[in-house]
């Protein structure tokens, strides 16, 4: 991983990635009173067929160093990812605003889907893995994602930018190398 200070003109220091992931690891949920101003909203950006951005809120989870979200196959985001998987996840936490760039992948490993479903269920969304082992079902979801089953996607960070919102401040870009 490489870190670059984008705000060194004011003597700001490079932020530590571990500080950011420490907050993400603590659980960024959409439950009321969990983040600022009243909860966290995670935004997903995908690329429409004409090259314009498509931005939508998603109930993302940070697990094992990657962002996870779910959606129905009929959604614009799913169609965009099938055509061009480059994606961006953005979230504002108390101490920073974060943008993570990566590639979205539909997950078809039943063990992984079950593990991430358990994280969502623990966070308050009562989802379960369906009989296929790779789809999710729940008593409710956002109406725009269509009917269950919903598919799980993973976005592994390729780069990230954080703007610190607390003293001493600073803006850092991280570039992650693949193993």
Beta-strand segment tally: 11
**Helix/strand/pairing category:** alpha+beta
Number of helices: 3
What percent strand?
Answer: 35-45%
Tell me about the largest β-sheet. Answer: 11 strands, antiparallel
Rg from Cα: 17 Å
CATH topology: Pnp Oxidase, Chain A
Your description of this structure?
Helices cover 17% and strands 38% of the residues. With 179 residues, it is an alpha+beta fold. It has a single domain (2-174), classed as Pnp Oxidase, Chain A (Roll). Strands 1, 2, 3, 4, 5, 6, 7, 8, 9, 10 and 11 form an eleven-stranded antiparallel sheet that branches. The mean pLDDT is 89.
List keywords for this structure.
179 residues, alpha+beta, 11-stranded antiparallel sheet
Give a nutshell description of this structure.
The protein has 179 residues and is α+β, with helices and mostly antiparallel strands. It has helices at 17-25, 76-83, 110-122, and strands at residues 2-5, 42-47, 53-58, 61-63, 66-71, 86-92, 96-106, 128-129, 135-137, 150-164, 171-175.
